[in-house]
Amino acid sequence: MHFNRLDLNLLVSLDALLSERNVTRAAERLHISQPAMSGALQRLRVYLKDQLLEPAGHHRLQLTPRARQLAGPVKELLLRIQTTLSGEPEFVASTAERYFQMGMSSYCIELLGRRILEDLRELAPNIRCRFHELSSHTLSQVEEGELDLCVTLSERSYLDPGAEYQNLHAEALFSDEFVVVASAKNHQASSRLSLEEYYGLPSVEVRIGDMPSIAYNLIYHYEEACNKVAVVPGFHLALAMLTDSPLVTVAPSMIAEAYAKAFELKWFAPAFRLPDLSESLIWHMRNSTDPAHTWFRQRLKAIAGALGPAHCTLPRLAIV
C-alpha cells in the first residue's frame, strides 16, 4: 500500500531503524535479511531527503536531527494502528483473549499479583499477564508501547528524573506507610527509636531495580551515615534476613504485616519521620478508550481498593 508515493511498509522499517540505530539489529528485529533492511533504509533516505542514520565513530551510528524528530511520531502512528486493528468492537471478559504486560516493583507484585491472577481466573480466563520488574526505563517502555501499563510511585520523577511524558495518564491506586521492621527478639529496636539510634543499628537497604527506596532516599538526606551492611532487590528478601538477628530495615507496612508471622518480626512507626507511599496506575493515552484495557484497569483499581486504606492509625508496635 502506498500513500503520497510512500510504501507504508517502510514505516515499520523506519521505526526499527530509529529505535535500534543499527541496520543489523533492525533487520533481526523484523526477521528480515540485512540487505533487505539496507535497501529499505536507502529508499527511506531518498523519500525523506535525509540520511536518517550517520556515522558517529567506532562503527556506531547516530540519528540525524530529522530522524530524532520522526522517531516519536512514527512509533506513535504504528502503535495507534495496532491498537485500532486489535481493538474488539464488543469486549466480553469471559471470552476475551489478551496479553497484558505490566511494570511493577516486587512489592506491588507481591501485594497485587496473586489477586490479579485469581480475579482473571474467575472473570477472564483467557487473559494472560506478564509482570516486569520496575526500572528507570519503565516509563519510557509504557510511552513506547513495550508495556501496557505500570504501577509506580505517584512521584514519577523517582523513576526517570527530568523526563516528561506528556502522553501518559496516571490515577491513584493505593497507599501505604513505611515502618521500621526488626526481629521480634531485637530489644534495641522499638517505637521510641530515634534516627540517631537507627544509624547505630546494622541495616539492610532495599533497592527497586537500580534505585533505593524513597524511604532510604529520605534517610540519606540526613548528615550521618547509616550502618548499612547489605543491599537486596526486594522487601521480602530484606525481611527474611531479620529473623533472630540485630538487623533492621525500612519497609511498607502491608508487606511487613504479611511476613511478620513467618519471619517472627515486629514492625512500628519510629520516632523519626518516614515518607508515605502512594502508588499510581500509569498508562498511555492511546489505550484510554480501548475496551479491554479499560476493563483491565478497572479490575486493577478494584483489587487495589480491596487492600484497604493506608494505615492511618498505625500501631506503635506490632509483634506477631
Give an overview of the whole structure.
The chain is an alpha/beta fold. The chain folds into 3 domains: 2-86, Orthogonal Bundle (Arc Repressor Mutant, subunit A); 98-163 and 290-305, 3-Layer(aba) Sandwich (D-Maltodextrin-Binding Protein, domain 2), CATH 3.40.190; 175-276 and 313-319, D-Maltodextrin-Binding Protein, domain 2 (3-Layer(aba) Sandwich), CATH 3.40.190. It has 11 helices and 15 strands. The strands form 3 sheets. Strands 5, 6, 7, 8, 9, 10, 11, 12, 13, 14 and 15 form an 11-stranded mixed beta sheet that branches. A two-stranded antiparallel sheet has the order 1-2. Strands 3-4 form a two-stranded antiparallel ribbon. Helix 1 (9-20) packs across helix 2, helix 1 (9-20) crosses helix 3 (34-48) and helix 5 crosses helix 11 (291-305). The radius of gyration is 24 Å and the shape is elongated. The N and C termini lie far apart (67 Å). Residues 309-320 have low confidence and may be disordered.
